[in-house]
Every structure is written in C-alpha cells, then in structure tokens.
C-alpha cells in the first residue's frame, strides 16, 4: 500500500501541480503531520492541513487548498473514532468539505461492526453540518456500492470487505439521507474503477473496484458540473477522483 511518503518518490508534487485543483484531499497518508509537511515543503500555493493517527505509519488524512479554509476540524468528535486520523472537515464560504478514510472491514469482516457504527456516526455528523451549509464528502469510502462498481460482484458479495450487504446498506443510507454519488449522477452506467490490487497485474487488466467517491448535498446539484475518475494517474493503488463545481 502507498502512503504519501511512498508516492512522493513517484513524483507526487509534480502530479499535484499538473492537476492544478483548487482543493486536493488525501486519505491513508500513513504519515505523521510533520512528515506530511516535509513531503510537501516544495509545493507552493497550497495551505496544508493534515490529521495523523496516533499509531505511526497508519491511516491519516490531509487537505490541501489554494484558499485558506474558514475553519478546520479533525475527527467526528467521538473518542472511539478519533485516534486514527480518519476525518478532516474544512469549512469554505459555500460548503463544508470533508475528507474521510473510512475503516476497512478487514479480513473475515472482523471490523464490520465498527465500520457500520462509523457509517452511522459519519452520516449523522454530515446531516448536522448541513443545517449550516451544504456538505461535500470526498474519500476512500471502502465500499463498492453497486455490481457495476467492481469486476467480480458475485464472487465477492458478502465474502469480501467492501462488498457486503451491510456496507452497501450504509452507502444506501447516505444516498437516502440527502446526498448524491456525483460520479453516478453523471455516468449512471459507466464502468470505471478507482482501486486495483497490486496482485496478479490487476491494474493492467483493469480488475478493480470503485471505492473512492464524492458525495454531495442534494442542494449543491445545481452547481455540480462534472465528476471524474483519472485512471491514467499512477503512483498509488488508488487513482484520483474529483468533481467540478461552477
């Protein structure tokens, strides 16, 4: 798996410059805050906010923005969730932007119960924020929502973390709770993935999963101009996903 330090050796700063995005969100940085700052010290034009896990080399998130956020908060405000650096909330003038690295249910689904609680608490947090202004959630949500979102849905269903009825139900709750999957909004039938295993030459064979999403408050749909998955950008087992607001 790649953390931000590993990808830095593969040209991360140049990738960021080429993308030229107003905001860039990272999940699974696998670095402490000072290490994130060191990796990005040569990058100009961005404010950097990171949130590292207590456990070194694990999890972690970061937000880079050309405009300084009005405010930054870290975590869900619940002790059981907030020692792994999994959520940053950046407040901007017209919306809250969240970057989240949702817990993986792990082998034999041993962390599934915790993951389900995380989904419930994250949705409640987002709905609370929505009372102030719209919300955009960006992240590795560790779920393939529909059969179209992974190469082998039948063999993985209820057996593999990320494609169980419970995780799918968690995503359903976000979509029923006032949020829209931006990529499916524009491309309801397109097969495109954002993550590939390092095993068995999976990326070259395009045996993948769509695990990375932008969920947006329904109130923002009039401003949503496009959503995209940049399969050609390499350096990690995930590729960038994004949205364009106008």
Write structural notes for this entry:
By secondary structure, this protein is an alpha+beta fold. It folds into 2 domains: 1-79; 102-246, 4-Layer Sandwich (Deoxyribonuclease I, Chain A). It is built from 7 helices and 13 strands. The strands form 4 sheets. Strands 4-5-6-7-11-8 form a 6-stranded mixed sheet. Strand 6 (96-101), helix 4 (112-130) and strand 7 (135-140) form a beta-alpha-beta unit. The radius of gyration is 17 Å and the shape is globular. The model has no long low-confidence stretch (mean pLDDT 97).
Taking all Cα atoms into account, the compactness measure Rg is: 17 Å
CATH C-level category of the largest domain? Alpha Beta
* Structural class assignment: alpha+beta
State the fourth-level CATH superfamily of the largest domain. Endonuclease/exonuclease/phosphatase
Instruction: Give the low-pLDDT segments.
Output: none
């Amino acid at each position: 798996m790649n953390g931000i330090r590993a990808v830095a050796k593969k040209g991360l700063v140049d990738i960021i410059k080429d993308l030229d995005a107003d905001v860039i969100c990272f999940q699974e940085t696998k670095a402490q805050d000072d290490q994130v700052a060191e990796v990005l010290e040569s990058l100009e034009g961005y404010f950097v906010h990171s949130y590292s896990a207590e456990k070194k080399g694990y999890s972690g998130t970061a937000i880079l923005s050309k405009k300084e956020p009005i405010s930054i908060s870290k975590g869900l405000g619940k002790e059981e969730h907030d020692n792994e650096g999994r959520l940053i909330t950046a407040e901007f003038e017209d919306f809250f932007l969240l970057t989240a690295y949702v817990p993986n249910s792990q082998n034999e689904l041993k962390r599934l119960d915790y993951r389900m609680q995380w989904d419930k608490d994250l949705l409640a947090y987002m709905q609370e924020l929505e009372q102030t202004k719209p919300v955009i959630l960006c992240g590795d949500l560790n779920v393939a929502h529909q059969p179209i979102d992974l190469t082998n849905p039948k063999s993985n269903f209820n057996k593999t973390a990320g494609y169980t009825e419970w995780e799918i139900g968690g995503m359903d709750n976000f979509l029923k709770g006032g949020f829209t999957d931006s990529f499916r909004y524009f491309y309801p039938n397109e097969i495109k993935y954002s993550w590939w295993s390092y095993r068995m030459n999976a990326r070259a064979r395009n045996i993948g999963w769509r695990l990375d999403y932008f969920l947006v408050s329904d109130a923002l749909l009039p401003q949503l101009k496009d959503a995209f998955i940049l399969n050609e950008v390499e350096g990690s087992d995930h590729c960038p996903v994004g949205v364009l607001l106008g």
